[in-house]
Specification:
The chain is an alpha/beta fold. Helices cover about 55% and strands about 15% of the residues. Strand 2 and strand 3 form a beta hairpin. It has a six-stranded parallel beta sheet, with helices on both faces. A four-stranded antiparallel beta sheet has the order 2-3-1-4.
Length: about 425
Amino acid sequence: MIGLIGINHQIADIEKRSAFALTSGEASLIVEDWIACHFVKGAVILSTCNRVEIYYDVETTCPAAVEQKLIHSLLSNLELSVRYGEYLMKLRDADAYEHLFRLASGLESMVIGETQILGQLKEAYRMASLSGHCSGVLSRLFHRAFEVAKRVRSEYILSSTPISAGSAAVDKLFSLPNKPNRVLIVGAGLMADTIYEHLLHHNAEHIVVYNRTRERAEKFREQHPKAEIASENSLERELRLADAIIVATSAPSPIVYSEHVRPEYGAKTIIDLAVPRNVASEVDTLSHITLYTIDALEDLGQSVDQDTHNKVASIISEYVQIHQQWMNGAQMREAIGAIQRATSLLLEKELAYNDSTLSEKEELLLKQHREHFRVTISTAIVSALRDVSEDGHRHRYVDAVQAIFEKIASKLSESADL
């Protein structure tokens, strides 16, 4: 079964989403623990400013119990109370595929049509693969999602203009009555590239890019030779001089406080794109400060007309069915493998009790007969399994049969080792 538990901007505000924010290291440790405890076969965790989503692969006949086990573990790792579990969405199989395919296509984003989410999904998949946390089934699912995104974006989404939360933030800034004279970008990561280029598109007069480390700031200037950069201990000075500030760092806590933007430093517009927030909530109480969080950008993306939406939904539905058929086949193949392993071990055990007085020819005939019997039995079981699993309860039957024969194989292997 493929499952999804997560939280996003559609079901929770920034404060609740912040509680679930994970660094790549934290995400890796959680999945490592789940695999070691045999909770899951693999998992991919996507953690961005708008969502934390965990896609997992598990063999189970009781999906609700698995969900609760994973949610309890997640809340425990994040030191969150049980009530936070109420904010999480829970999807399984086809519903999870559909959500992932829509997400990769930019249709589940706060800024509809944004291109950044696809890169974030690919990075989450890459990290899971490098860590050995991505099962074969999840790998197939994510590659299918990338295939869907490519088709949807090329046929229906206007991808000639790269849209992201960063460009939406700049659009928001320049939609305000007073255009900024000096813009400070706090953070020099990938988001800063988009922000900087979009500011140039808007003919911003003075742009400064600040990063905590000099090395990262210099790296940004290598990509943008005309950029004015600042680093290390100059943040307070740059915050004081700027009249517009866009904050986009990966810091786990606030780095901008009220003392950095005092009234004597003048009126300022601040857009905080970070989750968890990088601008302290106290700043929002200052009368000379206009503060926007990423949630304020929701209405700045591309709109999708109903006809286009229906066509895209049709494409996604087609791919969901294709992937479900592949999953059904994969699940059946795993069950067949379990049946064949168990019957083979059972016959090997029986053959071990052969009368030692049998001639070589008689022993060969006996082995051939028993192999024929094994194939006959396996074929009969698989045929019956295919028949009963066509009534809409495929997962229940196939999972149960697979579990039974894996248990038989496990017991036979244990007795053989004694």
